[in-house]
Write a structure and sequence with these properties.
168 residues, 22% strand, alpha+beta, single chain
Length: 168
C-alpha cells in the first residue's frame, strides 16, 4: 500500500547515522517506485534537508499496511517528529498520522493525504463540547511538521509547540 513519511523538528546529530541506517533498512525511496536509498545517500539527504530548512520526505509504493514499522518505531523511541500518510486500498482507509515527539494523532485521509473526519465524529465532538479541539487537531495533522533541524536533543514539548504554532 502506498505511503509517505515526512520527518521534521529537532534531530540530534548523534542520531543521524542510526536514522540513516534504519531508513536504508526500511527500503524507502525519495519518490514512489524508486529503489531503496543507501545509508550514505540518506546521510547526505539529512544534511541537505537541514541546510534547506525542509522536512525529509520518503516514500514506498509497497509499504506493508501503509506503514513504516521499523522507521516509525525508531522515530517514536527517540522523540523525533513525523507525519505519515497512506493511501486507501481494498478495505483499508487512507490515514494521516502525526507524531509530535510525544503523542500520536491519527485520522482518516484521502488518497492525496488530506485529513478527513466522519460526520459522526464531528457530531460527537459538538455534543461533547470539543468541536474546536477537533478542528485544532485536524488542522495540526493537516499542516504537518516544522522543518528538520539540527538540535542537541529532541524535546517533544518544543516540537509540539512548533506544530501547534503551525496550526494556529
Amino acid at each position: 500500500m502506498a505511503a509517505a513519511i515526512m520527518i521534521g523538528g529537532p534531530l540530534p546529530h548523534f542520531l543521524r547515522e542510526s536514522l540513516a541506517r534504519v531508513v536504508a533498512e526500511q527500503g524507502v525511496g525519495l519518490e514512489y517506485g524508486e529503489g531503496p536509498l543507501l545509508q550514505e545517500e540518506v546521510l547526505t539527504l539529512i544534511d541537505e534537508t537541514i541546510r534547506l530548512g525542509e522536512t525529509l520526505r520518503l516514500c514506498d509504493d509497497e509499504a506493508a499496511n501503509g506503514e513504516f514499522q521499523t522507521l516509525e518505531a525508531f522515530l517514536r523511541s527517540h522523540g523525533v517528529a513525523y507525519k505519515r500518510t497512506s493511501d486507501a486500498k481494498y478495505e483499508a482507509d487512507g490515514q494521516a498520522i502525526l507524531f509530535d515527539g510525544a503523542k500520536i494523532i491519527a485520522h482518516k485521509a484521502t488518497q492525496r493525504g488530506k485529513v478527513t473526519a466522519a460526520y459522526r465524529d464531528i457530531e460527537q465532538a459538538i455534543a461533547e463540547g470539543r468541536f474546536e479541539a477537533l478542528l485544532a487537531e485536524l488542522r495540526l495533522v493537516e499542516e504537518g511538521l516544522p522543518p528538520l533541524t539540527d538540535a542537541p536533543s529532541p524535546a517533544a514539548s518544543d516540537v509540539g509547540a512548533q506544530a501547534i504554532l503551525l496550526a494556529a
